[in-house]
Amino acid sequence: MISTKLDLTGLHASRLSGLLQPAFYVREIPIYGDLVLAPMDSYSDLPFRLICRELGSAMSYTEFVNVVNLQGRGKPQTVTAMKLKYDPTERPMTFQIYGYDEDLLVETAIRLQDLGPDIIDINMGCYVKDIARRGAGSGMLLYPDKIARVFSRLSKSLRVPVTGKIRLGWDDTKRNHVQVAKILEDNGASLIAVHGRTKAQAYQGSADWDAIAEVKQAVKIPVLGNGDVRTVADIARIKAHTGCDGVMIARAAIGNPWIFTRKDRDQVTPAEKIAVMRRHLALNLDFYGAQLGLLLFRKHAARYVQNLTGEEKPRVELFAVNTLAEFDRAVAELEILSRVVEPA
Ligand SMILES: Cc1cc2nc3c(=O)[nH]c(=O)nc-3n(C[C@H](O)[C@H](O)[C@H](O)COP(=O)(O)O)c2cc1C
Q1: Architecture in CATH for domain 9-263
Q2: Which of 38, 105, 126, 247 is labelled catalytic?
Q3: At the top level of CATH, which class does the domain 269-341 belong to?
Q4: Residue 60 bridge partners (DSSP)
């Protein structure tokens, strides 16, 4: 349990500003908000998820977890266990898992319910070669019958809703997003998140929002549109273009979790950035301990301070901090400098 005090201003603000009605439901679970932080391996850990939730992301997804690492009785160990930890304020909390062995996927999902997630999500989008070519992640898209079996079994045996995150297909010649979406719905899935690229594309080209619209039109369950939402204007554009129920944001949230308050990077003041960075660092220290917490914070720090100031020296100091006190000292210097560049 995280001891650092929670600042729920963003979350409450998003609920109070006309979002008293849920944006959509995952089966019976109301989702209060239309923006969702995407699962991101080595980024969407508990500290970063909390930051995003406090700023308005409407639900939480863990980074993907390999079911092979969850075998055996008892609690999962170390690194994997950390990925499945969550704070009660994150609910609705989704555990995302992947695997190629369908029995293992189903058995693991059933067992994971003991850890209290609200939703289990199956990753069918990961393009990494070693994962996809074994039929896991986006590799599952090559086997629609297997998807049908896995979701049929899961929806019958789980107490919690099951959802899926997909790409558009293996490659351009094997696009099957509409077929897969219908299979998911017919076999009990309660939500589909669609990244508008094929496996072969990885991150090349641009996300095909027309294809996300095709999925939305093909099913009645909620659809999260995902891919290339970089700005607040993009949020409105993807919603208008696809009719999706919510928008899932990955890369654009790194260094700019304020996207969930519908603010672009250049609308966030240096003071706001520093306050959130400090909280993120404190959460990291609390969750991982001093050494690992600092190490893992640095990649976020680099993204937070992008465009903060042209000065190199305080930036370097910010990355080299070893304690919160050192962070405060580096920031004090930054604040003096940032007054010069703070928007009028
Ligand atoms: C560093 C990184 C890690 C990712 N890890 C996962 C993951 O664990 N599970 C998943 O479903 N997608 C993962 N993704 C894909 C994102 O969830 C998302 O589908 C993709 O980045 C497109 O959205 P974006 O254009 O908003 O970045 C990852 C993406 C990035 C950049």
Answers
A1: Alpha-Beta Barrel (3.20)
A2: 126
A3: mainly alpha
A4: 93
